[in-house]
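Researcher: We are triaging several targets before committing to wet-lab work. For this one, the compound of interest is adenosine-5'-diphosphate. I'm pasting the protein sequence and the ligand SMILES. What I need is the predicted three-dimensional arrangement of the protein with the ligand bound, expressed as structure tokens, so it can go straight into our comparison scripts without reformatting.
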Amino acid sequence: MILPNATLGLIGGGQLGRMFTMAARNMDYGVTVLDPDPLSPAAEFATAHLNTAYTDLASIETLSASCAAVTTEFENAPAEVLTTLAARTVVRPSGHAVAIAQDRHTEKNFFKSNGFPVGPFAIINCVDDIDIALHDIRLPAVLKTARFGYDGKGQARINSRDELAATLTAWKFAPSIIEEFIPLKLEISVILARAANGEVEVFPVAENQHVNGILDITIAPARIAETLATKAITLAQKLATALNYVGILAVEFFITADDQLLINEIAPRPHNSGHFTIDACRTSQFVQQVRVLCDLPLGDASQHSPAVMLNLLGDVWQGLDHEISPDWQAVLQHPGAHLHLYGKREARKGRKMGHVTVCDPDLSQALAIALQIRQALSQSN
Ligand SMILES: Nc1ncnc2c1ncn2[C@@H]1O[C@H](COP(=O)(O)OP(=O)(O)O)[C@@H](O)[C@H]1O
Ligand SMILES: [Mg+2]
């Protein structure tokens, strides 16, 4: 066991890293953050900030020499850096698991070859792949770059062959996948922790609503049949086992019109749809990340209050350049609403600036308050 007072390394210093760092610091672990952004949200709480590129050799040396264990908060952490570090210190999740999750080609192939349910897709690397892809999947479709996409970025809706060819040309034929557009009944996610000894603790299934490809609202627990929730949890557990995964794993699912579960993607880290766990579960996903990293016994992931999480995007910051914070009174007047801000100095459209979690014994009441807050914030803009 790695006990409090040890130093933990964190690759990536965004909001997920900030909340991990807060959890770790609260237990008196030191945290060294590696992030090229001088204004990294995590660095504000960290004990040290290595303000360099992720591949900087001196920084990697510092992490391996001074950290009892290293984790990551984003899937674009160079997998080879994690693998290098693993020769000298504990690294969770592994470079292997991150490598699979950070590339939609390897990710989708992994799902398919291990028998996990996925929607129809095809891989595109060059112009010749266009007709092969359109033979295998039907339009309309969604085209996604294999790497570095997030929050709906690096994605395009495709309605015709011409549109596909034009988009790929504009993208300079960056390796991509094309997926059939699935008419969605609902989206859900399962977040779990898998310990080094194989023990697993699963958070309640979350129901997710996206706007423009970005998570807008999470409702927890998801309003789905028990049997479907159990099925999703079982699939997520099997996936974690198949990956030999150690750490926090998020699995995003589509629920189709006929109640089929399809795996959309995985994230080798805490997930935006798990932010409700901070205020509504006995252990948050970030405390759990510390626990699994340090080989502490896993915390109880059960929920003590129904909750609705509302993302706060830069869109609701006011003024021409989104330079003025919203009137927080709209949030703070609700006793069950918990405000979380990520310390980002520059608000931009679509940028995740914070979130609000509304806890209420009645889930529909929590949802009503969250929607009221969203309405008030967007109106004041
Ligand atoms: N094949 C698809 N059919 C229908 N909707 C999709 C499809 N792929 C993505 N979406 C929508 O776009 C959102 C973001 O896509 P996703 O693949 O999860 O990328 P990101 O890495 O940006 O989260 C999904 O949560 C879903 O709402
Ligand atoms: Mg996603």
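Researcher: Any quick observations?
Model: Residues 226-242 form the longest helix (17 residues).
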